[in-house]
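Lay summary. Proteins are chains of building blocks that fold into shapes, and those shapes determine what they do. In this project we predict the shape from the chain. Here is one chain we studied, written as its sequence of building blocks.
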Amino acid sequence: MVRRTRSAPAGLDVLQESAGRIRDNIEQVIEGKTEVVDLALVVLLAEGHLLVEDVPGVGKTMLAKALARSIDCSVRRIQFTPDLLPSDVTGVSIYNQDTRDFEFKPGAVFANLVVGDEINRASPKTQSALLEAMEERQVSVDGVTYVLETPFMVIATQNPIEMEGTYPLPEAQRDRFTARASIGYPSPAAEFDMLESHGATEPIDDLEPVADALEVRKLIEVVRSVHLSDEVKQYVVDLVGATRSSPDLRLGASPRAGLQLVRASRARAALDGRDYVLPDDVQDLAIAVLAHRLLPTAEAQVSRRSPEAVVADLVERTALPAEQAAARRR
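And here is the predicted shape, written in a compact code that computers can read:
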């Protein structure tokens, strides 16, 4: 485990203070789910995208809307339905009779925060309209490329694929989401408080922004400066590589998965007040970042062995940097 002796980035204290304000704001609406809120902040600061998957009615859309309202920036919502077209997402060129030329009308993806509600109720063709925007932060329409503003984050919700009227997300689409979160049912105490606070009014209507796009851009720069040692890099490579050789998986993690695991680990370290990444950061985020990208074998499905369980097992079995060094010395 490598620790640094030089001073931490100047903006680390500012990052913690800003992130704390955003977290507290969201938790006015989403009660008792601090881990999920923290994961959303990690993904935001890692310049990634978040997929929130759970059964209806547990607050998936509320989480996305609360994060969007907490930051004073451009926000667009897309309600994914079976009849939604790709052009509704990316935009379309329309002929202007006055200028006698085609004029581009931007779609809903042109915003800092894009809330995609029930993304797996749209056809795979429409889902694919997000691929270029999520990976390259640009949109190409009729041979013209339009660059999206920073920050750019997609927060998509989806119901489990067993629910009626859903389409499974294509592998390429799932791989572009930095992490997947599951909110779960609230505790009895949190549900009681929710009935008290949400019964007569809608708390999200009273949420005010506590940060803006410029501030988020500065926080992202701080996260980029967090140190990642060669030992931790090798640990990420070993962990991602282990998913590709696991007998329980027919599709392992991609190189993009390793990159996003590193970015998320940097954001987690910064939120904890550190300017260096620990293997603990990687381990804490491994399931959220890797599991949704993996495809289990038929045998694993029959034995009800989920990708989450496989990743947890690989985390246990993959040697930590200190253990690797000790093995080399022996």
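What the prediction tells us: Residues 1-7, 326-330 have pLDDT under 50 and may be disordered.
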